[in-house]
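Note to self: the last two entries modelled the partners one at a time, which told us nothing about the interface. This time every component goes in together.
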Amino acid sequence: MPPVIEKETCIRCGKCVDICTEDVFYGSEKKKTPVIAYPGECWHCNACVETCPEKGAIRLRIPLPMMVCYK
Amino acid sequence: MEQVRTVDADVLCIGGGIAGLMAAIHAAERGAKVVVSEKGNTLTSGAGGMGNDHILCFLPEVHGKDLKPFVEELRRGQMGDRLKDPEATRVWLERTSEIVKLWDSWGIPMKYQGRYEFAGHGFPGGLFPSHLKYAGRDQKKVLTKEALKRGVEIINRVMVLDLVGDGTTVYGAIGLNTREDSLFLFRAKSVLLGTGVVNRLYQGLTPGWMGNATRPATLTGDGRAMAYRAGAELVNVEKLEHHAGPKYFTRSGQATWVGVVRDPQGKPVGPYLTQPDRRYSDMIIEVNKTLFSEYAKSGRGPVYMDCRGISDEDYDYMMTWFGHEGFTALVNHLQDKGIDLKKHPIEWATYGMRGSAGSVLQNVKAETSLKGLYVAGDDTTRSISTASTFGWIAGENMAAYAKGVDLPSPKQGEELLKEKKGFLDGLRKRESGPDWKEVNITLQQLMSDYAGFVRSETMLEAGLTHVGRLKKEALSTMIAPNQHELMRALEVLNLIELGELVCIAARERRESRGWHERKDYPYTDPLLDKQLVIKKVDGKTAALWR
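The predicted structure of the combined assembly is written out below.
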């Protein structure tokens, strides 16, 4: 469930924790890899991905029920 | 929750979205001491949190000096319903030009390739294109910076749970720190509600998955619920609202799509477009937002947004604006799954009952029916254009009002604070019971079944009873083991309150009008072409026709 953090790449700056409007990362501690405490509350806005200074450290996994139906 | 921080302000803005920040900036410019309380972080919060790419505005240098023909043309589209009050329409539109110039000067680029560019939300052949394209990706960052520059204090991660007042005047609010065990007591000369739309009241495309929404899931009509409790008047509570967009990846911003709405045989559903054209969004969606569900229900679907045949230039144009409109998660997802909009039409759906539950009644000065209480943004109207304009108007009026009143005494609000403290501590201590999600899913189920598309006296009566029972159950058994879940629990209690009001108002409007369809009163009654006001009188809900 979204978001997904690559522990090896994450620089633990906490920017995603600061800006998440839903506080999906509630309970995260400073200078530690953020905890994704409430993944089900993500509204998939992508703010964490866009704010992350380290490419590839965080991405959204779009849940299956949100599949785009195409021809 | 022993710790309480007291915050004094001339102007308190509850919600730091577009409306709240615009009000804060303007009030601070006029010399007021301004505080913004925000549930999330003003950098990304609210409906405009991830950006916007078009705003409705009237620019005399483009449209000419006469507002009348502009409004007449606007009436044809989805805004038609909101142009009923000529004075409100004039005040709003006349000030949009000022907003455009301000934003441009602050660093939100309002011009495309050096000129004003209008596109979308307009019928082909129209003479007055109304929606200005702008690069709004960073709009919230810019507005936050402008507010801070003027000395506004922004307090993030606070959920305001109730207003402090005496039934006629509002002079503060009580807030919950959503990260630490503490409360806020705001003592303010004037208060603005700018808390956004009502999400999570009805089932969305993915029932139970409440984050699959067109707006942040934190927007739960807190402003409307607390305004009602404080004695303010609400209107249009019985109305349903719909939207349409990609299935099942719920996103608003329909007019950013350059494509044609087509049926399974490839035939355009509407008469307006046969080829994608960057100047126009397919207006059949504004003529009938429920067409997608109607096609599906009748077996004629699915219906597609078909961008095939788009020119390379128009495709690049669309993708640029997708970025500003906040579609980056969707764009990444399409890429991951190999869905190329040049090749693949994608299905669209009607998003049922989004953002319903009415508005806090306001006048053209953004005043509510209570003294000292103002409202702007999606708590009252529903667009970035009105949010920015009436936020700006609210700011100047609140600063002026605050000059004439004294700061309330510290005693005021203490009683309510004590009561709330006891209630919140009780919730936190409870060890077992349903969590907020369980309660919220139940509410959505009841609202969709009893006060949704099928409405009648008996169904609404029954719905009201069931929601009332759910309220009792939630108040006595819901758990909230930490501050975050406490915030969610309070949101759900607000939603339950609004759910009850929807049932009451929908029962009272004994006719069908727009999307409010009564099976037992299928016709529109010309005698009921008036406003239904919902307010609390002597502790009870009153429905008044005006």
